[in-house]
Request: fold
Amino acid sequence: MSGCEGGKKQPLKQPKKQAKETDEEDKAFKQKQKEEQKKLEELKAKAVGKGPLATGGIKKSSKK
Reply:
């Protein structure tokens, strides 16, 4: 019995994946996503200044 091989065995390291080339469709898609993200950020900034949108609503009556 040899005590050298105790514990978990580590898996062999996989070779690093090559960086795949992005074509025009991927670039256009990423650009579109960035533009939409910017629009959302602007809308959020505007909404913060106005306050809560749903004020009031249905209130529960507290009957004892």
